[in-house]
Automatic annotation (TrEMBL):
<dbReference type="InterPro" id="IPR042184">
    <property type="entry name" value="YqeY/Aim41_N"/>
</dbReference>
<dbReference type="Pfam" id="PF09424">
    <property type="entry name" value="YqeY"/>
</dbReference>
<dbReference type="InterPro" id="IPR019004">
    <property type="entry name" value="YqeY/Aim41"/>
</dbReference>
<dbReference type="InterPro" id="IPR003789">
    <property type="entry name" value="Asn/Gln_tRNA_amidoTrase-B-like"/>
</dbReference>
<protein>
    <recommendedName>
        <fullName>GatB/YqeY domain-containing protein</fullName>
    </recommendedName>
</protein>
<dbReference type="GO" id="GO:0016884">
    <property type="term" value="F:carbon-nitrogen ligase activity, with glutamine as amido-N-donor"/>
</dbReference>
<dbReference type="InterPro" id="IPR023168">
    <property type="entry name" value="GatB_Yqey_C_2"/>
</dbReference>
Length: 154
């Protein structure tokens, strides 16, 4: 039980610390993250406690929302809102595993292609099936798919 919620406990402790230090961005972001985790815990037929891996997935989704919102605000010339979204994304990323570099991702793609014996773009599904568990949470799905596509068509 204790192991399942280490990340959630860290979020709660950091929320308290940020409230005491009057860090508004951090407080707002962590509150939002905990709310998203709570929503996920009570969605479905029965409420349950999320594992750290499931919490990482929720936080990854929230960070992606912030990045996309920042891009939309920037495109609309609303730099103040874009900066606020990027600040929230930065706070969320502190709780996520380190992202893979392009070189690390390419090496994992090569490994997965060799492991699955795939050749040609039609084998992308096979490669993704092998690769996804290895990169879980450390690279965005679109970036992974793009790397696999590039490798299979080369």
């Amino acid at each position: 039980m204790d192991r399942m919620t280490a990340l959630k406990d860290k979020l709660k402790a950091d929320l308290t610390a940020s409230m005491k230090s009057r860090d508004e961005i951090r407080t707002r972001t962590i509150r939002m993250a905990l709310a998203a985790v709570n929503v996920e815990e009570v969605s479905g037929k029965t409420s349950r406690e999320l594992t750290d891996d499931e919490i990482v997935k929720v936080l990854t989704k929230e960070a992606k929302k912030r990045r996309e919102a920042a891009e939309a605000f920037s495109g609309a010339g609303r730099t103040e809102q874009a900066e606020a979204e990027l600040a929230e994304q930065a706070v969320l990323e502190e709780y996520l595993p380190a992202q893979l570099s392009d070189e690390e991702l390419a090496a994992l793609v090569d490994e997965a292609v060799a492991e699955s014996g795939a050749s040609g773009p039609q084998a992308m599904g096979q490669v993704m099936k092998v690769l996804n568990p290895k990169v879980a949470g450390r690279a965005e799905g679109g970036r992974v798919a793009q790397a696999v596509r590039a490798r299979l068509t080369a």
